[in-house]
Hints:
two-stranded antiparallel ribbon; 1% strand; 2 strands
Amino acid sequence: MSPPDARSTAETATANGIDAARKLVAEDLRALDDTIREQLRSDVVLINQVGDYIIGAGGKRLRPLLVLLSAHACGYRGAHHVTTAAIIEFIHTATLLHDDVVDESDRRRGRDTANHRWGNAASVLVGDFLYSRSFQMMVSVDSMRVMQILADTTNTIAEGEVMQLMHTNDPDTDEARYLEVIDCKTARLFQAATQLGAVLAGRPEPEIEAMGAYGQRLGLAFQIADDVLDYSADGKVLGKNLGDDLAEGKSTLPLIHAMQRANDDERALLRRAVEHGDRGRLAEVLEIIRATGGLDYARERAQEEARAAIAALDDVPGSEYRDAMTGLADYAVDRAF
Length: 337
């Protein structure tokens, strides 16, 4: 880990980077909030309660922010980018509701999960409502290409969820399988967010592909960094319990690297911890991960993905919006240092 003063400097730079991006599209973000509140309305009281609770939980709204920035970077002048950003946020929120049920999580963003407060059935069904509402909103954008990207992305996310379930409590999960899962579960929604800005602006295909490549690599960087934080961050900062991935039987990159580098006794301990989701061995697991360089390796891989994301923007015309997207790539990985 970085020394305290270096960590403080990195956190400040990171906060400044995302704050600067948000200021660029401040008016759009206000319109986004209005759209989200309007589209969450339902005659069913429980939907309003759970929806307001989840959406009101805060967070950086990075994914919808990417829609707004990419649209401006590509010269879009309409209003559909706000609706599209809200769709991305609804899809993301629906996946969180379903994820927390599958993972039996009780904390997210520093407070109770919806399933912990209202139960699994309510969380699943409100997640379904958000999915169906997002598809209603897609129709209003009136673009077959937008609908195709979002439909394909939603399907891919579901496949990623199933793949992750198949690898739960599997200590033999390797880096290739891990990357496949996080590409489907996380990176594809980032990719859709950045592609859609270019699609709305009617940009040529190479520029759409460049935006998509940026989003995909950014999503990979973001998720790898998130997995580092699960073994290194203060629980209050993380907004969930330290070691949740281990407790849920997930083999993420720091642990996968440690499994490859550990001695026989250490590897046996790691295998048992993953197979049984044993948070009680967290201190020993953390020590092995640190000793084998698992955290450093994962941080470097996150940085590689962030650099690839920035390089993909070379094919996008220069602007303050593109600069902000570069800053967000730094934000994605600086959180893990």
